[in-house]
Design brief:
The complex is a heterodimer.
Chain A: H1 27-42, E1 49-53, E2 68-71, H2 77-87, E3 92-98, H3 99-105, H4 107-116, E4 120-126, H5 161-168, E5 172-177, H6 181-193, E6 198-203, H7 215-218, H8 223-226, E7 227-229, E8 237-238, E9 244-248, E10 254-258, H9 274-281, E11 290-297, H10 303-307, H11 321-325, E12 330-333
Parallel strand pairs in A: 1-2, 1-3, 3-4, 4-6, 5-6, 7-11
Antiparallel strand pairs in A: 5-11, 8-9, 9-10
Chain B: E1 4-12, H1 17-30, E2 34-40, E3 55-63, E4 74-79, H2 82-88, E5 92-101, H3 107-113, E6 129-133, H4 135-142, H5 150-154, H6 157-168, H7 174-183, H8 187-206, E7 226-232, H9 233-248, E8 252-256, H10 263-270, E9 277-281, H11 285-297, E10 301-306, H12 308-323, E11 328-334, H13 351-356, E12 366-368, H14 374-389, E13 392-398, H15 399-403, E14 405-409, E15 458-460, H16 475-495, H17 503-506, E16 510-515, H18 519-525, H19 529-532, E17 534-539, E18 541-543, H20 549-553, E19 558-563, H21 568-577, E20 582-585, H22 594-606
Parallel strand pairs in B: 1-4, 4-5, 5-6, 8-9, 8-10, 10-11, 11-13, 12-13, 16-17, 16-19, 19-20
Antiparallel strand pairs in B: 1-3, 2-3, 7-14, 12-18
Helix pairs in contact in B: 1-6, 2-3, 6-8, 7-8, 9-10, 9-14, 11-12, 18-22
The chains are: A alpha/beta, B alpha/beta.
């Protein structure tokens, strides 16, 4: 293509002509908008980009983007994405899933996606509730969540997407918030740049069934106290005046200390440190701030390269079927 | 000289019966004999030694061209222990020869097999000709110069027996020795197996004077001119998939989760990395079909393979492929069901699951392979329909078709037509070409893939607008799309061959309609077709059925449908083309015997 004729694609160019059908005020709108802006910033070729989703509110996402897309079946988006990526490793492949789709019915597939480390980005919209089926508790719902299927409150512990991914061997784990455009843009870009499976957990508000569940993280008054904004190599500090910091306690856990008084004890964020990632992912959101940003990012061999043995062509055809047919022990009959 | 001879080897699952049988097959084929095999092994990998449920067997029929089944009744049975004798007695022809490893008939093994009296000392084998052989000690003596443990020596027993059998059939051991040298990397193992083989052969010669051990031979086959090789079903299927990929000029991704008896196909294909095909072992059955659908969406041929329980898990995804109008091949190596059922035994009981087993009105083409070597052509045919009509296709095989071997006349690849999908072009009334501009005759849409500039689209399982492909809940649109899915099956019917019977065949009294792996057995029945006054149609296409099937079936006084299930094709024929048939079902985990079908035909003729 002639460079002079090449016009840059705007965010609008990445939006499809389909009417968006989420509830008014749904956090998904903000995510969609930020996603189109990031696609524009990255100038990804539309025809080389594929969004693949399962079932649920989040999974309608591909219909609204003017790229290739596949709205598959409940929980199985990682499997289809795996097939697409193995077939054509040059494509930019994005999985869009939710807390029910990804961690309940499809948990097994996410496990193996992280374990294999294909170069696929997973956007997990976590609203801690089943939206499309009208408000039942999900595997990430907080304990005692009252819902139509749990009128006395849900039982069992919620699963943490990041902790799960870390346990499965994921090489990139990030978290952001639907309406936090700067942070969301950053982690989406980083997930694209990462070579390997990238999990981006997006805390997303369900205005109908779980409204304001992340309000403390997103309202102006409390966000500084509730968010731990991560920057690689920078101190783990939070609070309106960055007065709090995280340090290692004598019992080898993270503890909150006064960062002004003890600046030397405050840990620096190191996104390549698996132990630190584990501690950050394990922070109880009731007593601790919620880490936002890139929690963990390391380089490991990616599956599709090992699968195709880094050949120039992923499916070499150096041998014809005839040569295989002829490879057995053959006898010839000339006349019957 | 016999026209055909059926030999059966039976022993513990660790005794190497499959290897023994397979080497006898290779030797027979070299000697110019036609053959058909029936490996019959237990689901347990190494069941406790000496138990009846741990018995593994390998049956082979050799002889002239009349051989097309592995044989109703066994002429020669070789048993390695009491359990093998006990479980295989009812396979024997009256007067059959039994070669027995008498040294394995100690009190412990007899007890394990459930014998109260020693079967060699009472008259329980009086109907047969028995030869008691000191297999264990003879093998031990042959290998005494080698530094081997008792257990290691015991592993060569099958080669000693093979040597003896080769002598009985007047063959030498040279080719088998060459094979052993190539197959095993450990020089000690090569040496042991070759010594045992030669010792078994020599044992026959030494005892020739006493004439204790009979010499046997079967006719050789007078094959039509051509080039031949022996082929195992799973290997033919693998080659068929590679051939289809070549004919379509598309790469192929084979996605599978291990399951009996489908896994040999995964193994066969995994060895081939240079012919446009790659295999992916998924985390479960659903992931396997999901990845195959991903491959199809990305523009290459997606194939998944399993057996009944796994196919059940794949059905939701199969509907997705149908709704998204993607080519996909699903191979079902059927086994005894329901549930876990009989994993290693043959059954044809997934036919209705294949044709009807999905939510919604979801018709898909179903093809059934009919012999081990026919897997090659069935695979090509299935991929052709999938791509030319943009639809998922189910290919039915079974444990027998996967594991059995037979001679195969080598195909000429130049005789096969290329497989071509519908091009992307605008259709009537639509200025812009899109992924849902379907061919007006086949209803196939263009196979647009990510990376293509033109026709970029979003696929999905929600109902879509007939023309644009966008989500649509419009009532008349759903009717139109559902009708189109049915019409596509009718369009496929126009592309498949008609059933052909000649005037004389049409004039016979009865008709057998069958499908799948029963072909070989029924072909043997049909050697007497004229005197039985019966004709035969073997269906390759199950859905859609050949267009003229009904008209032909109605010409006969009666229609007999033998199948290894409780009458599923019979039900399908009644439902789809409204003909009355006599259903003959058998579900014992075993193939039909020729005599069973003949008996059933006689019953129709009397009544």
């Amino acid at each position: 293509m002639n460079g002079q004729n090449k016009t840059l694609l705007t965010a609008k160019d990445y939006a499809s002509d389909q009417e968006v059908r989420w509830c008014p005020g749904c956090g998904d709108y903000a995510i969609l908008k930020t996603m189109t802006q990031v696609l524009s910033k990255l100038q990804l070729k539309k025809e080389d980009t594929v969004f693949i989703s399962g079932i649920g509110c989040a999974s309608r996402f591909p219909y609204y983007l003017d790229t290739y897309g596949f709205h598959t079946i409940h929980g199985r988006a990682p499997t289809v994405a795996t097939g697409v990526k193995l077939s054509n490793p040059d494509l930019s492949v994005w999985v869009v899933t939710g807390d029910g789709d990804g961690l309940s019915i499809g948990g097994n597939h996410l496990l193996h996606l992280f374990r294999r480390n294909l170069d696929i980005n997973v956007l997990l919209f976590n609203n801690e509730i089943y939206g499309l089926t009208k408000g039942q508790y999900s595997p990430t719902s907080r304990p005692k969540t009252i819902s139509p299927s749990s009128p006395r409150g849900s039982i069992g512990s919620p699963v943490s997407p990041g902790k799960f991914a870390h346990g499965c061997g994921a090489t990139f784990i990030a978290r952001s918030i639907d309406t936090d455009k700067p942070s969301l843009s950053e982690v989406l870009e980083r997930s694209h740049q990462h070579r390997g499976t990238a999990l981006v957990e997006i805390l997303q508000n369900c205005i109908v069934y779980n409204d304001k569940i992340f309000d403390d993280l997103s309202n102006k008054e409390s966000e500084n106290d509730r968010q731990l904004r991560l920057k690689h190599g920078m101190p783990l500090v939070f609070g309106s005046d960055l007065q709090y910091g995280l340090a290692i306690s004598s019992s080898l856990e993270l503890e909150i200390i006064n960062a002004v008084k003890n600046p030397k004890r405050v840990l620096n964020h190191d996104e390549t440190n698996a132990n630190l990632a584990q501690m950050l992912l394990a922070l109880d959101p009731i007593d601790y701030p919620v880490p936002i940003g890139v929690i963990y990012a390391v380089q490991k061999p990616i599956y599709e390269e090992l699968f195709h043995q880094s050949g120039k062509h992923p499916f070499p055809r150096k041998q014809t079927v005839n040569s295989l047919i002829e490879s057995g022990e053959i006898w010839e009959v000339t006349k019957s | 000289m016999h026209e055909t001879i059926t030999v059966r080897f039976a022993g513990d699952s660790g005794d190497g019966m499959q290897l023994l049988g397979n080497q006898f097959l290779v030797s027979s084929s070299r000697s110019g004999q036609n053959f058909m095999t029936f490996p019959d092994y237990p689901a347990e990998i190494r069941a406790p030694a000496g138990t009846t449920y741990g018995v593994s067997a390998y049956q082979i029929k050799i002889g002239d061209l009349s051989v097309s089944s592995p044989g109703d009744e066994v002429d020669v049975l070789v048993v390695f222990n009491p359990a093998a004798l006990k479980t295989n007695l009812d396979t024997l022809k009256q007067g059959a020869l039994i070669l027995i490893n008498e040294e394995a008939f100690g009190s412990r093994n007899l007890k394990r097999a459930g014998y109260k009296d020693h079967p060699l000392t009472n008259d329980s084998l009086s109907l047969f000709q028995t030869v008691a052989l000191p297999i264990t000690s003879q093998t031990g003596r042959a290998l005494e110069s080698l530094d081997l443990s008792k257990t290691e020596i015991a592993r060569s027993k099958n080669f000693w027996v093979l040597g003896l059998i080769l002598w009985m059939f007047d063959r030498d051991t040279k080719d088998t020795e060459n094979w052993v040298t190539e197959k095993f990397s450990d020089a000690l193992v090569v040496n042991a197996n070759c010594l045992a083989l030669k010792a078994g052969h020599a044992f026959g010669e030494i005892n020739e004077i006493e004439q204790k051990i009979p010499r046997l031979n079967a006719e050789t086959a007078k094959y039509p001119p051509g080039r031949y090789r022996g082929i195992r079903g799973s290997e033919a299927l693998a080659l068929g998939l590679i051939a289809a990929s070549e004919l379509a000029n598309k790469a192929l991704l084979f996605c599978s989760y291990p399951i009996t008896p489908a896994s040999p196909l995964l193994h066969s294909l995994s060895r081939q990395t240079e012919c446009g095909v790659r295999t992916f072992q998924a985390e479960d059955e659903i992931a396997a079909i999901g990845a195959a659908i991903g491959a199809s969406y990305a523009g290459i041929i997606g194939v998944t393979s399993s057996s009944g329980p796994g196919i059940a898990l794949k059905t939701e995804a199969l509907s997705l492929a149908l709704s998204a109008e993607l080519p996909l091949l699903v191979i079902n190596s059927q086994r005894g069901g329901p549930s876990t059922g009989l994993p290693t035994k043959t059954e044809q009981s997934d036919l209705l699951q294949a044709v009807y087993g999905r939510n919604g009105d979801a018709p898909i083409p179903v093809i059934a392979s009919q012999s081990p070597s026919d897997n090659f052509d069935a695979a090509i045919e299935a991929v052709r329909i999938a791509i030319e009509f943009m639809t998922p296709v189910m290919l039915l095989t079974d444990g027998y078709l996967a594991n059995a071997s037979e001679p195969w006349k080598l195909p000429d690849m130049d005789q096969y037509e290329k497989i071509i999908s519908v091009p992307l072009k605008s259709s009537k009334g639509h200025s812009q070409a899109n992924a849902y501009c379907r061919d007006p005759e086949t209803f196939a849409r263009p196979w647009v893939k990510p990376g293509d500039l033109g026709g970029m689209y979003r696929a999905g399982g929600l109902e879509k607008d007939f023309h644009s492909g966008n989500i649509s809940y419009d009532p008349s649109n759903h009717q139109m799309i559902t009708d189109m899915r049915t019409q596509k099956i009718i369009a496929i019917q126009d592309s498949i061959p008609l059933v052909e019977l000649n005037e004389e065949e049409l004039g016979r009294e009865g008709l057998i309609i069958s499908w799948g792996s029963t072909l070989g057995c029924i072909q043997e029945v049909m050697q007497d077709a004229k005197s039985l006054s019966v004709s035969h149609i073997h269906l390759r296409n199950i859905n859609p059925l050949p267009k003229n099937l009904k008209g032909i079936a109605l010409k006969f006084k009666w229609v007999l449908v033998p199948e290894l299930n409780q009458g599923q094709l019979s039900k399908l024929l009644k439902a789809e083309i409204g003909i009355e048939v006599i259903s003959y079902g058998k579900v014992q985990g075993l193939p039909f015997k020729v005599s069973e079908i003949v008996q059933k035909i006689h019953e129709q003729r009397i009544s």
